[in-house]
Amino acid sequence: MSNLFWLTDAQMERLRPFFPKSHGKPRVDDRRVLSGIIFINRNGLRWCDAPREYGPHKTLYNRWKRWGDMGVFARIMEGLASEGGEEKVVMIDATYLKAHRTASSLRAKKGGPTTSAGG
């Protein structure tokens, strides 16, 4: 049994209206690339650790970066959250939020206030 994540046909149909138009050369398989991006983010992996079933890790990263810069993922989240015609409260599951272990020391290195006792 595979532990890989794959978007379903129904999920792809809900997402497709948010995709930017393809100009010139057709994009590689959207389902494969988006499933890979979700897999990487859900599991906190590096891009180079992407399973080969999702295609080249550089393709995954480039799509994530390009669509992120274009605001595609933000529009997807906003669009899905507003489906149903009424305003909804969107909650983020904190179990997927991760901070690097050195993040707390960055404030002290930049001369900002620290949260340690006595500091």
UniProtKB/TrEMBL annotation:
Coiled coil: none annotated. InterPro entries: IS402-like_dom, Transposase_6_like. It comes from the Bacteria. Transmembrane segments: none annotated. Residues 7-77 form the Insertion element IS402-like domain. Pfam families: DUF4096 (PF13340). This is Transposase. It comes from Paracoccus sphaerophysae. The lineage of its organism: Bacteria, Pseudomonadati, Pseudomonadota, Alphaproteobacteria, Rhodobacterales.
